[in-house]
From TrEMBL:
Coiled coil: none annotated. One of its GO terms (molecular function) is endonuclease activity. The lineage of its organism: Bacteria, Bacillati, Actinomycetota, Actinomycetes, Micromonosporales. It comes from Planosporangium thailandense. Keywords: Endonuclease, Hydrolase, Nuclease. PANTHER family: SLL1072 PROTEIN, SLR1083 PROTEIN. Pfam families: Uma2. This is Uma2 family endonuclease. It comes from the Bacteria. Signal peptide: none annotated. Residues 20-182 form the Putative restriction endonuclease domain.
Amino acid sequence: MTVDTSPLALPRYGEPWTVDDLKRLPPDNTMKYEIIDGSLVVSPRADVYHNGIAAHLCRLLTLQAPRHLLTSMESGVAVRGGMTYYEPDALLAVAAAFKQRDADHLDPSDVLIVVEVLSKYNRRHDLVTKRHYYAVAGIPQYWIADPDQQTLTVLTLADDGSYAERAVVRPGEQWKSDEPFPLTVDPAEIF
């Protein structure tokens, strides 16, 4: 008798998913895998328009950010000891965090801004669930780009540990901030 020792050993029934479990899944470029409170959430990968908005946001941040900060698309962020894991559409983090050769994800303490672009597949998660967990993780800013409304909503971490809406900006309007560095954003550059 032989025993199957397949490397695809998923959590046992009733046990939570973790970031380590994601490493054992077969490669899949068609779906996005995230974990919320130990539950696996699978959604289709974003389309070209969605990714273009994230890329424009990365370029906008890169052109204005100091050299010790770096933007990235779809780098993972683990929250709550790997029991919750997201791949934001874009983010801004401390550049040194990207020099860890064996790291599978970023630590929330290295992330200054997370960006989610709303889509029909993840709208509720982006507006409610991710908003909660990014705040719990202490990420200073959460930006939500809405392609349908053509708005960029900027949320900042409040003293009570939740996000407060700081601005809702539309194409042709400029939003300026000194946090996390002097920055000017006009959604006309994004949508």
